[in-house]
Amino acid sequence: MLCFINFVRFLQYIDFNKVEQLFIYDPSNQLYFSTSFFIFFFFTLLLFYRVFAKSKNLKIYTIIFFSLFFYYKNSGYLFILLFVSTFINFYFGSWIYKSKTQSVKKLLFISVIVIDLGLLVYFKYTNFFIQIINGMTSGNIQFLNILLPIGISFYTFKAMSYVIEIFIETMEPTTSLRDFVLYMYFFPNILAGPIDRAVAFLPQIAGEMTASKEDIGKAVFLIMSGLFKKAVIADYIGLNFVDRVFQVPLRFTGVENLLASYAYTVQIYCNFSGYTDMALGIASLLGFKLMENFNIPFLATSVADYWRRWHISLSTWLLDYLFKPLQMSFRRMRTFGSALAIFITFLLVGFWHGANWTYLVFGLFHSTYLAVSLLTQKFRKAFYDKVHLTGTKFLKAFQIFITFHLLLITAIIFRSDSLHTAWEVFHQIFRYFHGVVFFQWVAGYTQVFVLIMLGYILHFIPKSVDNKIKNMITASPVYVQALLLALMILVVVQVESAQLQPVIYFNF
Amino acid sequence: MVSERLQKIILNELKLDNFDLRDETTANQVPGWDSFNHINIIMAVEKDYNIRFKGLEILKVKNIGELQKLVDSKLQ
């Protein structure tokens, strides 16, 4: 009885309104991987997963249920759109597979692609097009009140990979709507990728869906490194340095603008690859293997090489489903045809990132880099052969340096709110450099400086060292692993100076 | 079974002296066979056999064995 009274007293201290708020969509309080509510969310999920260990069906429905809640918490009622997209692609996939004639098959395929891209374009680009039309005609069309469904670029591409692979007959459709819903809603990769292929994901549902000791060790490592990269390095240097400079570049010297550009380059790497690491780790604990998305991108010796190392799930998607078909149809134009195909592909890479001129110009730069690189490939090779540089370490270092700085230019455009801001950054760097300010800057921004350096060091750590650490964690007892994770969470809480920064890629 | 003729076309296009091309060999296992060279190889095969592939047919091909089968089906 006393116990009951104490319990009732305890309940009085809980503000149920606040608890209720936790479960309702609130744009200012979303459910990202590095929030404390996510830890509660994920441990509850793991508990159910453990309880239902013997029934795969219940395990699948558990992930679906939690994924639905996760997506609802981040997008509100726009999750209905994801329902629509899921059902359309599931049934069209099945109809394409069953259609008797090639023309019906083609018609169905074109219809579903038009629907997928139509929804994406409507929600993401309508107001941008209105802005352009208004600009050209000095008209005054009202902007539409369209909210961007979070993650739409990612899940649309996931869905499209399913119907495309069925159309080109490299996979058979799944007969289980439940499995397809799991693929589409799977919360670890729904907001910012990796853009996993149905052909790689669906067979995993047919598998064991359990995490081995290796999976758990790997997951602990990935979640720890992801948290550190995202919540400590990226957020700190973003808030305390990069944002300030890019807000008013003219208020800073050229050297500070250049440093902010270096800082942003490592910030976006730590932000995006950190988030991806967490996604891979979380999926791994549920027994799923997601696609690798990064492979030391700034070690690239060419821009083409960079796209094989950065956001791999997006670049291979576009390579397989857009570049290759384009290249095939332009093949009579030989190298020029390939250059044209690569130009179109990467222009769309820019556009995929969002409805802003900065993204279009970002894409245009990458298109130009890649097309020029392809067209001059033979001459450059002949030149390096002639001066006996082919295969030397010097040439490799030179290529890495040049590639990195070509990327830096695009990073400035990508980060700037407008082309005008980007122009101001370049102006300061080339016209108002003031190199001596560097030492004052290091003295004033020591923590930022250390974190930038740490970010680059972490980025350049070879895979072999990563694997050694992973193996060490795997070999250690469970309580050590739990302790390590708890320590990392503590570090993150300590460092988190201000409000949480969303992942940059959520906006795409 | 990959015919000698097909092997020769591929090796010649990639400027490789010798490389063991089997049915199950995929493009990324062969040195130099990247997405740009891919189209050159496809065109060299079309020219040598005097055949023409459709875009969709080539997209379906997963390894050299399947490319051989596609060539054979065109020749019949």
Q: Describe it for me?
A:
The complex is a heterodimer of chains A (508) and B (76). With 508 residues, chain A is mainly alpha-helical. Chain A has 2 domains: 33-206, no CATH class; 213-507, no CATH class. In chain A, 74% of the residues lie in helices and 0% in strands. Chain A is built from 22 helices and no strands. Chain A has helices at residues 2-12, 16-22, 36-51, 56-75, 79-98, 102-137, 152-167, 177-185, 187-190, 198-206, 213-247, 254-285, 303-307, 312-329, 334-352, 357-386, 393-415, 419-431, 437-444, 446-460, 463-475, 478-495. Chain A is globular. The mean pLDDT of chain A is 90. Chain B is an all-alpha fold and 76 residues long. Helices cover 58% and strands 0% of the residues of chain B. Chain B has 4 helices and no strands. At the A-B interface, helix 14 and helix 15 of A face helix 2 and helix 3 of B.
Characteristic terms for this protein:
heterodimer, A: 508 residues, mainly alpha, 2 domains, 22 helices, 74% helix, 0% strand, B: 76 residues, Non-ribosomal Peptide Synthetase Peptidyl Carrier Protein, Chain A
Mind sketching the topology for me?
The complex is a heterodimer of chains A (508) and B (76).
Chain A: H1 2-12, H2 16-22, H3 36-51, H4 56-75, H5 79-98, H6 102-137, H7 152-167, H8 177-185, H9 187-190, H10 198-206, H11 213-247, H12 254-285, H13 303-307, H14 312-329, H15 334-352, H16 357-386, H17 393-415, H18 419-431, H19 437-444, H20 446-460, H21 463-475, H22 478-495
Chain B: H1 4-14, H2 35-49, H3 55-60, H4 64-75
Helix pairs in contact in B: 1-2
